[in-house]
Design goal:
About 75% of the residues lie in helices and about 0% in strands. With about 160 residues, the protein is mostly helical. The protein folds into 2 domains: about 35 residues, no CATH class; about 120 residues, no CATH class.
Length: about 160
């Protein structure tokens, strides 16, 4: 779905007569095309997770009340948000490469992940690998802050109600 999302986002740049609906994009890609860029997507998502989850656990512990060890809603939102922001920033270069490869003509222009990385560095410099990092962090931080707050609250409820041992 990542490639379909990117292709749909790029529709706005096309003349109205050339724009396609979601199902047209899906049919045009075909089953194999729907998985184009999976390796690049994983090269973004795996490092993000390797950074995010341990950072969240450590921030949650650091933000906990020193006397009780409990976390407030604000501390959980902060830990999840900060961990999400830092993980997304660190994974931005992989996201830039993934997105470039999944654009229409991206595979033809760049070939593979390594060549895309080298081409972007050579033609645009290292800062190009962090294009969009701030907006990405602004989306991911509240998303993960709220998601983990919800998770922690549900977990606490289930433990207190005896649903979990």
């Amino acid at each position: 779905m990542e490639i379909v999302k990117i292709r749909m986002q790029m529709q706005a740049l096309l003349p109205a007569a050339e724009r396609q609906g979601t199902m047209d994009v899906v049919r045009g890609l075909g089953l194999r095309g729907m998985y184009q860029g999976t390796t690049a997507t994983l090269s973004r998502d795996i490092p993000f997770s390797l950074i995010f989850f341990p950072l969240y656990a450590n921030l949650k512990r650091a933000f906990a009340d020193k006397t009780t060890g409990d976390n407030s809603i604000v501390s959980l939102l902060g830990a999840g948000g900060l961990a999400g922001a830092m993980g997304s920033w660190a994974a931005t270069p992989a996201d830039v490469i993934k997105t470039r490869l999944q654009l229409v003509g991206g595979k033809e222009k760049y070939g593979d992940i390594g060549n895309c990385f080298r081409t972007v560095l050579k033609e645009e410099g290292p800062t190009a690998l962090f294009k969009g990092s701030v907006p990405r962090m602004c989306v991911v931080a509240p998303l993960f802050g709220i998601a983990l707050l919800s998770f922690e609250m549900q977990k606490e409820y289930m433990i207190k109600s005896g649903m979990l041992g």
